[in-house]
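Most newcomers find our protein records easier to grasp once they have seen one. Read left to right, the backbone structure tokens trace the chain's path through space. Nothing more is needed to start thinking about how sequence determines fold. An example says more than a description, so a record of this kind follows:
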Amino acid sequence: MNLPTWDVELDCEGMLCPLPVLKARKRLGAMARGQVLCVRATDAMARIDLPHFCAEAGHHYLEARDEGLMTLHLIRVG
């Protein structure tokens, strides 16, 4: 699977819901439209919460990739 490259990486390893979403929201607000954020998360709920947040906030949830216990979530700023 080829994932797009990203501009900014956010490490949310070990953080539980809702912290990955809250930290992603803050970071996305400081990024330019079209840039891609990679959220590194271990909380399984991030797989549900991040796409839902993106749909409501106007960002584009691109894809997720499992890397062991970590999941990389790619979000394009809308």
